Amino acid sequence: MPTAIPQTNPRAEYLACQAEIDAAVHRVMERGQYILGEEVSFFEKEFAAYLGAQHAVGVASGTDALHLALRAGGVGLGDEVITVSHTAVATVAAIVQAGAHPKLVDVDASTYTLDPAALAGAVTPRTKAIVPVHLYGLPADMAAIMAFAKERGLLVIEDCAQAHGAECRLSQTSGWKKAGTFGDAAAFSFYPTKNLGAFGDGGGVVTNDAALADKVRLLREYGWQERYVSAVHGWNSRLDEIQAAILRVKLRQLDQWNAKRQKIADIYDRCLAGSAVVQPVRAADRAHVFHQYVVCVKNRDQIRRALADAGIGTGIHYPVPVHRQPAYRALGKGVNLPTTETRCAEILSLPMHPHLEPDTAELVAAGLLDAARAG
Question: What are phi and psi of 318, to 5 degrees?
Answer without folding.
Answer: -140, 145
